[in-house]
């Protein structure tokens, strides 16, 4: 739904044509009498109906659905109520964006970078997902670079010392002595780069190993080859943790009119194609990518809305299990972070929609087009990942192993996947 093709607003009247329910109050006593299963089914039905009305432009009926949802959903309720509150809010934002002036006047914005960084730290500490990804990356890089003396690692937007400091320690204790290591970090937040740089430089000084840090303060879509300072003779590796999908953002109107191009249902994307061609031209030994295992890069709102409900229900259930059903500041911050992702998936279109997660099989197609091939996992990598996840408790979490990927699931529902790629 484009906000650029709008009819003039009608003259003020005592009874406005459209009323929007943007707040989601706590459920009433009558609603609380419903069994959670019954309430959950009603919420799903109402959300899907509301999404259908919002997609077709039937604002009166969409608003009526939002009013009903507001009586059932709650940001302090059970997992399904909290999830529904986020999806309902995202639908409300999609509707109100039909009036750009009203939308901008509300000064709607996501969390500040500092708050987002703090929330990601909570996420890393409270759940096995990031540790799972870091364990795979660390073990794979150690195996890949074990005989190299000049190593260059490009961090595509993670910027977390918890990933790179343990790896540097492993390199420092190599039987052949510490290699020369250079880390290039690409990040749009200068503060993240400064913190990472200070941490890794201090660590390598204490380890007495040769080291360089190259901060690149740009968004991933603005990155150019010369910024990376790749030199001849370097053993090159790249790693992206939950960032590569932003390069899939594009104007979707052509696909809307003419349908997907024929290549296993995978849309061509100029920005992604150019980026992967640049990476391939550097001839890296390996590229590691960790991404959400869901398909939110679909043109039709209803398609990605259904995908989003399925995927984020697993995420919110794992949050609920971690916090034992209680409400606290940390839990709210996490749900707000994922709520912003949901809003981008539901309320945004075109270049503004960056949360374009795709499944592992589609990433394989994209990388194959660019001249990459998948790498078989080392046995030790899988064992490291399993031990780490088991440390968080065996209930709920599960590792699915494939030849070229590990996926971490919550009750058999895949949440994150980590494909590994290497040039031919």
UniProtKB/TrEMBL annotation:
Record motif VHIID, residues: 151-155
Record InterPro entries: TF_GRAS
Entry annotated with the keyword Signal: no
UniProt region (Leucine repeat I (LRI)), positions on chain: 41-101
Motif (LXXLL motif): 244-248
UniProt region (SAW), positions on chain: 347-422
Region (VHIID), start-end ranges: 120-185
Keyword annotations of the record: Transcription, Transcription regulation
Record has Lipid metabolism as a keyword: no
Recorded family membership: Belongs to the GRAS family.
Protein name: Scarecrow-like protein 3
